[in-house]
Amino acid sequence: MIREEDFVESIASALQYISYYHGLDFIRAMGEAYAIEQSPAAKDAIAQIIENSRLCAEHHRPICQDTGIVVVFLKIGMEAEWDAKHGVLDMVNEGVRRAYLDSSNTLRASIVMDPAGARRNTRDNTPAVVHMEVVPGSCVEVKIAAKGGGSENKARLAMLNPNDDVVKWVVDSVNEMGAGWCPPGMLGIGIGGTAEKAALLAKEALFEPVDMSILKARGPASRLEELRVEIYDKVNALGIGAQGLGGLATVLDVKILDYPTHAASLPVAVIPNCVATRHAHFVLDGSGPVYLPAPKISDWPDIRWKTDFSARRVNLDAVTREEIAAWKPGEKLLLSGKLLTGRDAAHRRIAAMVKQGERLPVEFANRFIYYVGPVDPVEGEVVGPAGPTTSKRMDGYTDMMLDMGLLGMIGKAERGDDAIDSIRRHGSAYLIAVGGAAYLVSRAIKKARVVAFEDLGMEAIFEFEVDEMPVTVAVDARGESVHKTGPLLWLKKIP
Length: 495
What we know:
single chain; alpha/beta; fumarase; 5-stranded mixed beta barrel; 4-stranded mixed beta sheet; 19 strands
């Protein structure tokens, strides 16, 4: 007998759990990646990710400010009985609602309804995406994930010809993804079935544990394991590296599931999973709710990130274009002072107001803007985890914002060629913080207040006052991008 409250509580508890605990398989793999990494920039990024992971585990705060869209795979036993008043989908959504509105660790509401229209936030991160299968037995098996938007946006699906090279297509796809999915992470690959089946296989493959080092040590025992190793080696040989800065570790593992397909077809899907990998697996057997065991902090690798006090210190309240012109690509900065925030919805509204000739509520001249949608604060925090979002989505607004006198932008991953050209023409700069280090970044934020568009929730415009916030120069005033030069350098070095 599966009680409604036990099911709902188990869903809620699992979502809280994965918001602040990485799986130990992932953490160990990150430790291995750190040990072999030779790129200083990538090694520093991995150290920040590991430090952030440890802090989140200790303080029970989200690993990433993007606490994800909830995806659930259910296997419901045919002999299971339910003591419930609501349907399975409603019970899942109640668990999501309970988890995301938990006052002890409030998670960010990222889901919007009317996706092709008004895009109004549902305010509680519902609804989840649920896949159900009826199987023999009397238990309910639950696989649950909170999938970040940055990595989900990089998903690829192709209907290849039966004789096409799957490995080449996957490697080419990853090379085109850039760094917006926050590497190093995992690749889930689905092969076969139909278009939608391949995508589901790729998503479900991401629930498998990270074990590539074990596989390589013992050697592949099947064709799929051979494909896993081949794709892993060839993707890492691209030199993309952590956060796209160039280096040895782009993927930690490659997971593949396949399914019989039509003789004329070869559907293939690849879905990357970022460094904020959040998955849980449990079984309800009627004995009560499931609470996953907490890992030991001592299980984290003994890797500590410290502020690099040799980095250039920047006073955001007084910085000039002349100073910005002296910054070098790949240079580390420590930012102090006031900066504004803004992401998709805020930029869209600003553009509409400019078009209508309306007065803007914020002055952007001589300011920096941080692309972020923070988590709500709890227990006296100034702000919750506040890591960067993928900057390329704001490329279409770059000219408009820089024309207003904006000095520069802070986000994650690469910018497009048009945005880079605009940065060069305006003599501004684009800086990056480490994606997947949201709680670590938030500790540098000393004050926060909403200054415009409060109705947009996490997408409102905030003013942050920061103290030695660590960032890296990604595009300098001359238009040189580390996301182009870094991977290119390591692509040549790795062989």
